[in-house]
Structure formats: structure tokens, C-alpha cells
Specification:
Elements lengths: L9 H28 L2 E3 L4 E3 L5 E10 L12 H13 L16 E9 L8 E8 L10 E8 L5 E8 L5 E5 L2 E5 L4 E10 L12 E6 L4 H15 L4 E3 L4 E5 L4 H12 L2 E3 L6 E5 L4 E4 L8 E4 L3 E12 L11 E12 L4 E4 L5 H9 L5 H13 L6 E4 L1
Parallel strand pairs: 15-21
Antiparallel strand pairs: 1-14, 2-11, 3-4, 3-6, 4-5, 5-10, 6-7, 7-10, 8-9, 11-13, 12-13, 15-16, 17-20, 18-19
């Protein structure tokens, strides 16, 4: 015997369909809001491979071809000495008593960043900065300059025409200058001569170093890698280091790291921190800063001191009379009225900003207020003064 399923009225079926569609819409909205709230980042944005880094190169060089704006060699002996050494390499020897003024030459310091995995023949950018009293490096040419690392070895040779982003003119004791004239850059101005050895292809493991030490970030990085690449591939050693079990083949190792760097992970809420710059009065705080209920009284106290000279002139016929100059000081103290303002708890950054703005204080006053709130224990954030 086959049981018959009772049919629903058409109106009831339509109502249930609308209810299901409404619930589905709300579910999708909730899912979208949760995904929007949970910010995701790639692993390459929070960590980097240990040992894969750039190296600093420096060198002493000479810039020639200046329009009379070079060093005054009588005041900068190393400019003349460097030029004499260079001329001796070219087979030219100047007399010992020769007094030569190289007005078109400037002694410079050449710096560059040797990127990771740089190979001989590649070109890198260099920065050229004046070491002496040259007025301008505009229009100059850097002659061949060896760039050395901290180990004293030569890793690149720099040479080329300078690009100086400024201009200036002077005449009759007056001078007009736009931007900086004593430093410039040479794009692709150095050629790599030596490669820096790296341990990237050695060993069975690769270490990822986090940009900021945080145990939660290290754990999430390891979990995201294991979920994508398989269990046991990554392990967090501490709050800064994550160790990977890498393949032995160099080609496979490159592909392995390329996949790991693109793995998404949920971003960790940063440590609550307030950065205070006492020189400029700037205040920067991140989204994790919150404020407990606190009361603040703010008022301004100004002291004004003005001095008026008082001159006492002696009589014309007074013997031994002298003119006495004294000062009369006028001191005024003004204190503006301040009321005690209650600041409610601020669980979000927007609430904290609104509460601080309600005080009507200047940025300089906010520096002292934030320090006092932190000392009172009402602000759960690190206060860093730079």
C-alpha cells in the first residue's frame, strides 16, 4: 500500500517559500558581515624568509663636471687627495708642490642596497651625497666608484650621471634654492660584481621570521600553512619564528615558498598602542585602544612677562653724572576656567576620538592628558613617546 502525501494549499506553500528565502537572505548577510569583519592577510605580508635580505654597500667617490659648485679643495683635503689618487691610476702624476683647485669636483659618499639573490651583471640604484662644502651636485657625473660591504669586499661598481631634484641660483650675495642640491640618485647606476652567498637552498628546513613578535600571529601562521599544505609542515618555535619542512629540490623549494606566501590567514588584532610625538604634537593610536570611565579637568595657565626700559638721565651740571638704564617688569598671570568632564567608557576607537575631542584641547594638551589617563590606569594601551 502506497501512502499518499497530502498536498499543501498553494497559499501555504508560497508563504513557506517566502520564509525560506528571507532566512536565506539574512544568513547570507550575516556571513558577509562576518567575512568583512574578519580581515584576512597573506602570509607574505606578516612574515619573511629568514636570511633572505638586502645588504648595505658604501663607497667613497668623486663627482666631476660641476659648474664651479664643487668643493673648495683648500678646505677639503680629502677631495684633492682623492683626485690625485685617481689621476695616478690614469698615469698622471702631479708635482708635490702643485696647488690645484678642483672647483668642478666634489667628494661624495655613495650608498646602495644590494638586494637578495642579486647576481653579477645586474644593475641597482645608488644614492650620492656630498661630503664636503659643495654648493650643488647638479649636472655632475660620478666616476667609477667601488662599493664595498661590511666585510671589505667589493660587490658593485657605480658610475653615471646624477639626477638632482632641485635647482638654485646665486648672485650678488643673494641666493635662491629649491629642494636639496647636495644629494642625488643614479637609477641603475651600479653594476653588481659579486653575489652574496645565501643558505636558502641548504638544509631541510626554512625559517619564517615574523615582522612583529606575537605568539598569536605565529600560531595562526602555522595553522594556516598546515591547513593548506598538510599537517606537520609548519611549527611555531616562538613568537617570532615559524619553521617549515621544505623539499630538498631547489626548484620545488621555490614553488613551495611561492604557495606558502599566498596563503590567506586571519589578521591578529594588534597590541593596543598610542604613539605620541612630542616634537610635532602628533598623536596616533590603533583600533585596539580602549578607555575606561575617567574624569578629566582641563584648563590653561598663561604667564605673560613684559619689560619696559626706564632711563634715568643725570642733570647737565651734576659732577660725575651718569645715565642709568633700568627695566620695569610687568608680570601677568591668566588662568582660564576649567570644569571636570566625565569621559564614559570607550570600547571602540571612534568613541575614544569623540570623547577626547569633547575636551576641546589642543594636540599639545592632549599629550599631557593621555599621559595622565595612562598613569591613572584608565587607558589599556601602551604609550610610546618618540
Amino acid at each position: 500500500m502506497i501512502a499518499r502525501i497530502p498536498s499543501l494549499p498553494l497559499a501555504d506553500a508560497a508563504t513557506r517559500l517566502r520564509v525560506c528565502l528571507t532566512a536565506l537572505v539574512f544568513l547570507l548577510l550575516a556571513t558577509w558581515c562576518a567575512m568583512a569583519k574578519a580581515q584576512t592577510v597573506r602570509i607574505k605580508e606578516v612574515a619573511a624568509v629568514q636570511g633572505v635580505r638586502s645588504n648595505q654597500l658604501t663607497g667613497f667617490g668623486l663627482v666631476v663636471g660641476l659648474d664651479g659648485t664643487g668643493d673648495q679643495t683648500n678646505q677639503m683635503p680629502y677631495t684633492a687627495q682623492g683626485m690625485n689618487n685617481y689621476l695616478q691610476q690614469l698615469g698622471l702624476t702631479l708635482p708635490a708642490d702643485a696647488k690645484v683647485q678642483f672647483k668642478n669636483v666634489a667628494a661624495v659618499m655613495v650608498t646602495a642596497q644590494l638586494p637578495a639573490f642579486a647576481q653579477p651583471g645586474q644593475m641597482i640604484d645608488v644614492t650620492v651625497s656630498s661630503m664636503g662644502n659643495a654648493k650643488s651636485l647638479r649636472g655632475g657625473t660620478l666616476i667609477a666608484t667601488p662599493l664595498k660591504g661590511l666585510d671589505g669586499e667589493i660587490y658593485a661598481i657605480a658610475q653615471g650621471n646624477l639626477l638632482v631634484g632641485g635647482a638654485g641660483a646665486s648672485a650678488g650675495g643673494s641666493r635662491v634654492q629649491v629642494n636639496h642640491l647636495s644629494a642625488g640618485r643614479i637609477p641603475a647606476g651600479a653594476q653588481v660584481e659579486r653575489a652574496v652567498p645565501t643558505a636558502f637552498a641548504l638544509g631541510s628546513t626554512i625559517d619564517l621570521g615574523l615582522n612583529a613578535a606575537d605568539f598569536q600571529t605565529a600560531r595562526r601562521v602555522a595553522e594556516a600553512i598546515n591547513a593548506q599544505m598538510g599537517p606537520g609542515v609548519a611549527s611555531a618555535l616562538d613568537g617570532r619564528l615559524v619553521r617549515l619542512q621544505a623539499p630538498a629540490d631547489p626548484h620545488a623549494r621555490v614553488g613551495f615558498l611561492a604557495e606558502i606566501e599566498e596563503i590567506p590567514m586571519q589578521a591578529v588584532v594588534p597590541v593596543a598602542k598610542v604613539i605620541v610625538n612630542t616634537r610635532t604634537g602628533s598623536i596616533v593610536m590603533n583600533q585596539a585602544v580602549t578607555l575606561a570611565p575617567v574624569a578629566v579637568a582641563h584648563g590653561n595657565l598663561s604667564v605673560s612677562i613684559s619689560s619696559t626700559p626706564v632711563i634715568s638721565q643725570a642733570n647737565p651740571l651734576a659732577p660725575g653724572g651718569q645715565t642709568v638704564v633700568a627695566e620695569k617688569a610687568d608680570i601677568q598671570i591668566t588662568q582660564e576656567g576649567g570644569s571636570l568632564i566625565q569621559i564614559d567608557a570607550a570600547p571602540q576607537l571612534a568613541d575614544l576620538v569623540r570623547m577626547l575631542n569633547s575636551l576641546g584641547a589642543t594636540p599639545q594638551d592632549l599629550l599631557a592628558i593621555l599621559q595622565a589617563i595612562k598613569a591613572a590606569g584608565a587607558m589599556n594601551a601602551e604609550l610610546e613617546v618618540i
